[in-house]
Amino acid sequence: MGAGTDATAKIVHENWVRVCSQVHEACVAADRKSEEVRIVGVSKYVGAELAWQLAAAGCTILGENRPQSLWEKCDAMAGHQLPEGVRVQWHLIGHLQRNKLRRTLPLLSMLHSLDSLRLAQAISQEATAIGANLPVLIEVNVTSDQTKTGLQADGLEGLLTKLVHMPGLEVRGLMAMSSLNSATDLVRREFEQVREMRDRLQLRFANEVQLSELSMGMSGDYRAAIAAGATLVRIGSKLWEGVMS
Length: 245
Known about the structure:
Layout: H1 6-29, E1 38-42, H2 48-57, E2 61-64, H3 67-77, E3 89-92, H4 101-104, E4 108-114, H5 117-130, E5 134-139, H6 156-163, E6 169-176, H7 184-204, E7 213-216, H8 222-228, E8 232-235
Parallel strand pairs: 1-2, 1-8, 2-3, 3-4, 4-5, 5-6, 6-7
């Protein structure tokens, strides 16, 4: 792409291969098929050059926390050739403010952080206006940390009742984060709670929506998330070892 070195690209590729192997091992340990779990390479820590190198290494789903960073990387990477057949899908895993929706929506393949009816209505209006259909995940807070974003469990069914027939968006499942620096048993229980919520909602809305996705787990807790049923794991720091100061 321009500024990056061959040495850096080699490290990024090696990191990607190692993370893929570790995710595969976690799937085997959980008696799951590797193809059931996709890695979202979290590129918020790095610039466009390293994000491009990660995509070239084979990570075709890139996740950003801030809309502005997503815009910048999309602009910087536009027109730079990737290996044949490789197409980057951009996922927004952080909060999306409604005033940034118009510029962000056309770039997204999925939003992981839908957390309010007002945001859903804004997405529906904007997506309908441009003839788009945005896959979304409802963010749920299953921790005792009230500073974390996301809906409480008791608000999920009411929100989904309103979303299932809303044009321009397609609810695919749930997203959650575990408690920070917590014991593995607690983290596993939290992820299992999310899966159970998803399963109950799927039964309740069986004829209206397919909640096939669970976005759970990051670099420090992806194994517990996979064991609990994650289909998307958001891996960041493990992918940037050796290239990030």
